Amino acid sequence: MAQLSSASAPKRRPRAIALLSITLLLLAALAAPAVWSIDGAAAAAIEIDGTKAADLYPGNNTCAKPFTGNALDWVKDCSATVANPKLVADPGTVTGKSGATGNWNGVRIVDGINGGDNDIFLTGGKENDTSTWNVGPGTVGSSKYDATQAYLANTQSELFFGMERRGNNGTTAFDFEFNQKAPAAGENYIPTRTVDDVLLTFVLNGSGNTGSAEAHYFTWSGAAYVEQPLPASAKASINDSQNTPSAPWGHVNSKGVWDGSDLSRFEFGESSVPLSVLPGVDACGGRAYVQLRTRSSATDTSDLKDATKIFEYEFPSITVTAAKQNPNATDQSVEVAATATGATGLTYEWEKSHNGTAWSAIAGASSDTLTYSSFEADDPSPSATGAFSIASGDGSGNYVGKVYTVLIRVTAKKAVANTTCKGTSAPVTVKKVLAVDP
To answer: What is the CATH number of domain 319-433?
Structure first.
């Protein structure tokens, strides 16, 4: 399985732990910044199943059953071609079973296991007091606190979380902390907290024949994380009713080994909350610095158990590119197509400029493609300057062979939550070589 790596640094105790934050880089065109989101701003949100039926596959599908319908879940496909760079894992961390296949939606976060875990709270740190944090290599103790892998994704209106643990008997609280500011230089584990930072805590509970998943929402007051009312649209689910098929890349079983067996009951949970809970992020994008941790409960005095390094999560904005289709030397009539990512349900506005004139709208163009052939209406008179100017001393009045150039660009827009998000393409050059005098 391909993975992104982060440089490791020696650990010091307690608060002076040497750290290096992870910045995920999406291998995108033009070396664009990392965007951790549902791939291609998918048309559907991650499927959060009923409160007792969390799973990783869309609908009732598995790798043995072709995906059908419009549902979207953590497993994107079961392909033997693994081409998803959105993976957070320390160098050398095993990230899948032998013969792992499949791609995922959003970001997959994989932690070390057993003796290979470098991110354990060694002396029981407390949530609100980072001076007590003592993170280093070790074992987490009870397998129920061992976060093996997690998932994070978003649309323009929702955040989605998935969580797997190695043991299923008892209670584990999964913390996703979202900070507005980057950690201090060289820090891997100690967040820089500012007022209104957000802590989203998901409590997985399982014992005997019953289990539950609960979501909690906290904001940083400047001194402590204070619980806030959870938005009514929030959802939480656990695989209570039955064992759950693992993803095609596998999961970590109770013995600390990657395999393709089912996840036991109460080992997988998922949740969603509105994107609006995060400061500095809206439908048009933003960024946050994220850390995943586990602890024994959602109370602020509970002991912290497992952690990941802090990483940067960049929320998507609308990105637009435009290109000519079937270009030719003279472009007498040309189609320009736009490709937009980061949102669905977009509207398109096309503009043109010739010979340095101000941008003006192309009337009647509102789809993601444009057939442009109205050169004649834009042609300057023979006395115009620019592409049609006659070289000094040339009195022939012959314009044949002169090039008339138009720049065309497109803006994609979407109104979300009283905000209009937009992205504009770079200009595309369309030209016409005159075969006759204008």
So the answer is: 2.60.40
